[in-house]
Amino acid sequence: MKPWSFRKKFVAGLLIIFIGLVAYRSYKTYQDDETARLSRNEILSLEINGVIMNGKKFLHTLKKYAKDDTVKAIIIDVNSPGGAVGPSQELYYEILRTKRETKKPIVCVTTGLMASGGYYAALACDKIVVAPGAMVGSIGVIMEFANLEGLYDWAKIQRYTITSGKFKDSGSEYRPMRDDERALFQDMISEVYDQFRGTVAKARNLPLEAVTQYADGRVMTGSRAVAVKFADAEGTYEDAVKMVARMAGLKEGDYKIFKPKKEKISFWDILELRDDEEDDLNSVTGVKSFFGTKASAEGVAKELLKGVLKTKYLNQPMFIMPGYWE
Q: In the chain, N or C: fewer CB atoms in 10 Å?
């Protein structure tokens, strides 16, 4: 067997160092979390921030700590205009599952924005606390499309599709929408809207008629949300902490708040093509900050196109506050 060349030894050495650094960072993150946990009574504090396109990171953290014996209660700080329908519903069902399986009280709170999909997720909590001037509600569904036919004509681009059925290319951006396609999407939106209204009525113990009165996409202040029973109490994050502590039977001074540290984006995240609402790799700023000057012109152009034309949120039903885009 031929001896390794200097280049092979150098590459192998770099690989070993890289693996070692990854292992050390993982161990250090674990140690930091464990070192911060000094109390036998903890309130796990989590956050739902920004547009909800993928809640996997939040759910991973929830599952990691919720069943820990030292965790007696959970508080979720929401500042979100909502997001995609599926991920918003997933957050709701998993928070609900956690509540049922652990029997631990969960309180959601917002001092900023708890709208649409963000509000949907909060419905799974035992109590909802809102600042008087917070923006709450926006119960409804929206689905946007773009007709770029004129742009393609200007650029002398022609697009064609070969489909297995007449609805397979529905929502395509290179042609106008047909009436039967519009009716199809409207039926889908109405179905998802009924799911949203039904969830609000069940979670808030309200008649469906009472929910429908305000389920037209409007947002309301926190004070108004409490008045119409869409939320339980006015207050701040600290008020919510005290509320969930009382619900867990914890006395003041006999508990501490535990906030898991956010993991930084790693090389492995890039390999896995992880897409999460807390990652900035899908934004122009994120591309530049991660790759520096090596970001390709084509990649930056695509990100700019997403921002200008809002293509990231097109052609999918969204629980999102009208007029809000990331």
A: N
17 torsion bin: left (phi>0), alpha (psi -120 to 50), beta (else): alpha
**Which one is catalytic: 88, 116, 138, 172?**
116
Half-sphere exposure of 255 (CA within 13 A, CB side): 24
In the CATH scheme, what is the code of domain 39-142+185-320?
Answer: 3.90.226.10
Domain coordinates in residue numbering, the chain: 7-36, 39-142+185-320
Q: For residue 64, indicate whether it is catalytic.
A: no
31-57 burial code (b ≥16 CB/10 A, e <16):
eeeeeebeeebbbbbbbbebbbbbbee
Q: What are phi and psi of 113, to 5 degrees?
A: -135, 125
Catalytic residue (choose from 64, 67, 166, 168)? 168
Residue with the two structure tokens 């509600």: 137
Residue-by-residue pLDDT tens, the chain, 326 positions: 556 565 666 666 677 777 766 665 655 555 555 545 545 789 999 999 989 988 888 999 999 999 999 999 999 999 999 888 989 999 999 999 999 999 999 999 999 999 999 999 999 999 999 999 999 998 988 777 777 778 777 888 887 788 788 777 777 777 787 888 888 888 888 899 999 999 999 999 999 999 999 998 889 999 999 999 999 999 999 999 999 999 999 988 888 999 987 655 554 454 444 444 444 333 334 444 444 444 555 555 555 555 555 556 665 666 677 665 44
Please state, in angstroms and rounded to a whole number, the distance separating the CA atoms of residues 262 and 260: 6
Q: Which two tokens stand for residue 170?
A: 């529905």
Nearest to 198 by CA among 143, 273, 123, 292: 123
For the question of residue 5 being annotated catalytic, the response is: no
